[in-house]
Amino acid sequence: MLLCASSLPLCSSSLPSISPSSAAASKRAATMAKPSLLTFFSLLVASTLAADPDMLQDICVADLNSAVKVNGFACKLAAEVTEADFFFQGLAKPGATNTTMGSLVTAANVEKIPGLNTLGVSMSRVDYAPGGLNPPHTHPRATEIVFVLDGTLDVGFITTANKLITKTITKGDVFVFPRGLVHFQKNNGDVPAAALAAFNSQFPGTQSIAATLFAATQPVPDIVLSKAFQIGTRDVKKIKSRLAPKK
Fold first, then answer.
1. How far apart are CA 86 and CA 29, in angstroms?
2. What is the pLDDT of residue 134?
3. DSSP labels for 212-224?
């Protein structure tokens, strides 16, 4: 309660009155503003987590031999940086595709180009023999965009709603695989194919689904795989033997 002497100039007659309806409207407005602010800050935080952290200096060439472990790589001393840290010729020639899957991925990431450290980008070249497959896999730290250099590829990814998004792409075409979703490329042609892939991470990481589950260095228990895939443990052991790393 506001007590006011009649002799004081700031009395009830000089103060604006607030009606119950106005107070209720103000309360509703404040309540409606809270979700909007929450949404804004959620989007702001999400945008900062969408790719590698922003760089805080001109360059931070990775010191791949440093014992210091950080999120990324420690920086080389500026005096030790050379043009070789920003150069790589490994994507110029086709890779050998005489592999189990008939494909070969040649990465141009921070391990090959130390100057990519903190820059948030990298590339790969993928070569496919006729019938070759880049098997289902994910990149946990990056979205991927591919550009077909030669040949024709059947590509696709699976959403978390279990929907397959697939298309046949040919020379000059571009296709995008969203970050973290399982995807693949298959050369169903009778001639070799090749593609360039770009990532919004210096080190996107790759998890091949089959190899991750059936060829982990600490083996996934047979009973887990048997129940998950609804197959017998004998079949699990057979698949593990076929996917085991070559000694």
1. 54
2. 98
3. HHHS-SSPPPHHH
